[in-house]
Amino acid sequence: DARVVAALRDLTLTSTDVEVSRMALFTLARDESPAGRTFIEQLATSGKSQDLRQHAILMLGNYDDDAAVDSLIRIYDANVDTEVARFAVIALSQSKRPKAAEKLMQIFKTAKDSDIRRMAMMQLAEGSPEKAVEALSSAYASETDISVKLGIIDTIAQIEDPRAMRKLIEIARAEKVHELRKRAVFWIAESDDPESGKYLEELLKAGD
Fold it and tell me: pTM of the full predicted structure?
């Protein structure tokens, strides 16, 4: 009903109670009406209230279509290195669309803000294991910041896939920086993967 949507929209914008505004916005998102969605997209793109804008961005991530992903990409690109960008990354991670995963990989590889890069990295780890390990391996090879590389190792270790263990072993064998090699060995020792046991045996024999 157009009148209900209008009433909820007005309540969202005019209520002095933050919780009431959030609830009205949440109700609009559940309604799934075209008018309600248009309002949410407008609020996410240019809302004056930071709190409501951030919530609207998160709600966009729940729409399972490419149009919502396109909106989130535009929001991110227009607000790089800001709090808005962080919420756009979270919202993109909620989408199951391939286009969203591609954008997260791009953000991870190119974002200048290290916190945003870490956020994208963590979200990638929760997606396709194969693509995540591939993207993280590529980033590890090109990264020069040791703290970021440590974060990449930690993220790879959270991926439950044989490719992740193989990458950790590769780092443990080839990495020249002691701190990085030590972190990779730590995660290998924490794993129940058969490959980890073989590598640890190899490591012990080499130390004899």
Answer: 0.71
User: Is residue 86 a contact partner of residue 116, using CB atoms and an 8 Å limit?
Assistant: yes
d(C-alpha 201, C-alpha 183), whole Å: 18
pLDDT in tens, 53-97: 999 999 998 888 999 999 999 999 998 768 899 999 999 988 888
Would you state the pLDDT for residue 207? 66
The Cα–Cα gap between 84 and 23 comes to 20
CA distances (Å), origin 131, targets 59, 79, 125:
26, 26, 9
Mean pLDDT throughout 173-181?
95
The distance from CA 37 to its chain's CA centroid, rounded to whole angstroms, is 23
Count the helices and strands in the chain (H runs, E runs): 13, 0
122 DSSP 8-state letter: H
C-alpha 143: how far from its chain's center? 19
Q: Where are the beta strands (DSSP E) in 20-175?
A: none
Q: How many CB atoms within 10 Å of residue 198?
A: 11
Helix (H, G, I), strand (E, B) or coil at 97: coil
The single-letter DSSP state of residue 48 is S
For residues 138 and 191, what is the distance between their CA atoms, to the nearest angstrom? 23
Per the document, the length of the chain is 208
CB 200 within 8 A of CB 184: no
* Under 8 Å between Cβ of 140 and 149: yes
Name residue 7's amino acid.
A
